Amino acid sequence: MPLNIPVNLPAVELLKNENIFVMDDLRASSQDIRPLRIVILNLMPLKITTETDLIRLLSNTPLQVEIDFLKTACHTSKNTPVEHMQMFYKEFDRVRNETYDGMIITGAPVELMDFEEVDYWDEVTEIFDWARTHVTSTLYICWAAQAGLYHFYGVPKYKLGKKMFGVFKHKVNDVQNPIFRGFDDEFYVPHSRHTEVRAEDIRRIRELSIVSESEESGVYMVMARGGREFFITGHSEYSPYTLDGEYRRDVSKGLDIDLPKNYYRDNNPEKGPVVRWRGHANLLFSNWLNYFVYQQTPYDIREIK
């Protein structure tokens, strides 16, 4: 996919080294095409890593995409250079009058806090509300999925006795849903979280549909408003060594952390991970862009309602 992103964004060179085609904004401007406009609210602490993971997946179709990165105004990232944030990120006030074909809202390292205790809760819920009238389809990932389900539908989250950590097998509940076009009967997704939402709470709400889940890791994907919103509890976007980095970080801190399940070859960290989720991750993002963004968005993006 020709991605219209700033030429000096670090992800550009990182992905070119993986032989992934990324078109920067200079070249994209020469194509006479209306690109899909995608805005990414990146709440993860390692911004550059998350940018690269998402761009890797958004680069898998022939559609041209223009990406804006969004940050909260009331929270300063401690793990990403200030210069990077100033150069590549916008605050909500700069885009509140804009319209977008798609939006992605990432997870955040605040899941053990009550939602209302998060210092950017008021701002992020304002963005959630704005997305409903200014974006064709929105992906809420991990903490954002829990936050969106709570904000819009009152779905509670629950603390787990032990971290849900590893790569888990999932099933498709709605095989006719285009989001799963090309999926196998079973597929794998990484999870890394201390909290969960429960199927029994979601099934009480008529507007919500659990379209994929796992016997071991629970609810995976919830759809609302005919695909205008997807709430995804796992991390299909994770690169091969993300869980490894999280595991080694926690070990170095002396935390009580188990090996990520179904992840290392022979359960041996020195042998590296077995990557079994990459194909379905690419399908997930390309299906979302094709069936729920490109085919649903109006040609005049200002007509989104």
Automatic annotation (TrEMBL):
- A GO MF term: homoserine O-succinyltransferase activity
Query: What are the protein's UniProt keywords?
Result: Acyltransferase, Amino-acid biosynthesis, Cytoplasm, Methionine biosynthesis, Transferase
Q: Which NCBIfam families match?
A: metA
HAMAP family, A to Z: MetA_acyltransf (MF_00295)
Q: Which Pfam families does the UniProt record give?
A: HTS
User: Which InterPro entries does the record associate with it?
Assistant: Class_I_gatase-like, HST_MetA, MetA_family
Asked whether the UniProt record includes Metal-binding among its keywords, one would answer no
Q: What is this protein called?
A: Homoserine O-acetyltransferase
Q: What is one process in the GO biological process aspect for this record? A: L-methionine biosynthetic process from homoserine via O-succinyl-L-homoserine and cystathionine
Q: What does this protein do?
A: Transfers an acetyl group from acetyl-CoA to L-homoserine, forming acetyl-L-homoserine.
Q: This protein's superkingdom?
A: Bacteria
Which reaction is catalysed here? Answer: L-homoserine + acetyl-CoA = O-acetyl-L-homoserine + CoA
**Assigned GO CC terms:** cytoplasm
> Which species expresses this protein natively?
Coprobacter secundus subsp. similis
Q: Where in the cell is it found?
A: Cytoplasm
Instruction: Using the record for this protein, list the coiled-coil segments as residue ranges, or answer none.
Output: none
| Family as reported in the entry's similarity comment | Belongs to the MetA family.
Named in its record, the pathway it takes part in is: Amino-acid biosynthesis; L-methionine biosynthesis via de novo pathway; O-acetyl-L-homoserine from L-homoserine: step 1/1
Q: Could you say which EC number(s) this protein's record lists?
A: 2.3.1.31
Q: Which residue positions does the secretion signal occupy?
A: none
Marked site positions, Important for substrate specificity:
S192
